[in-house]
Design goal:
Elements lengths: L8 E7 L6 E4 L5 E5 L2 H5 L3 H5 L3 E6 L13 E7 L11 H10 L4 E6 L8 H9 L5 E4 L9 H13 L3 E4 L3 E3 L3 H33 L14 H10 L5 H8 L3 H13 L1
Parallel strand pairs: 1-4, 5-6, 5-7, 7-8
Antiparallel strand pairs: 1-2, 2-3, 8-9
Helix pairs in contact: 5-6, 7-8
Length: 261
Amino acid sequence: MATEKKEKQIVRIRKGLNGWQFSECREDGRFVRNAESIEQIKAQYEYEIKHRMVKFVKELDLYPEGEEIKNKVYGYARVSTVGQAKDGNSLEAQKAALTAAGATEIFVDTFTGTKMERPEFDRLNALLKGGDTLIVTKLDRFARTVGQASELITDLIDRRITVNVLNLGILDNSSTSVLMRNVLLAFSQFERDMIIERTQEGRAIARTKEGYREGRPKKYTRAQIDHALDLLKNHSYTQVEKMTGISKSTLIRQKKQIKIN
């Protein structure tokens, strides 16, 4: 008995959208995804190709049928603290400027100190596609160092993503544009370094004064801590916390320190 021959899955390869080289489409012409190369499309069908279950049809003179992908305009804001207001860098000011410039979706990263963790930007970067626009209010919103920001902006432009810095304009990878942004980034980094240097000098001077203590002032006196620890002999952590206002975590930490010492 002859086995029934299965029809092969048809994958149409057409001219890409939004600056991409190729688009992968279903048999009925519906768009699936954009790609840089035909090999990139075929890589999605490794199993089907191995078992001869797919047929690729090149129609490079055609655009994908169905609903066309629209270019998106994203905004990115970065602040050290939510309430930061220096030089118009507050979150509210950045959001207002980005929205006025046409951003329909805004991603925000908030961090403190010199750490440069940007989970929201990483999420945004994964969404950005050729033809999209990324808006930031100022050049130094991208990163804290010249090298990091320059490399990031170059990568975005190479991916055909329009980078719009509101106080500069549209960036590109021309020699003049690269020089200009590197100079401005260098000044921003210099300013941050000067602030850190002045802060460190201030701390060095403060350490020479009598009674100086590093870090935040203690919330509770030694006597209050000792009293709370004494109460733990006959009461639970929850009861002592309610009686003294000292948190359970603080009491546990203080108790461990006494055992170590």
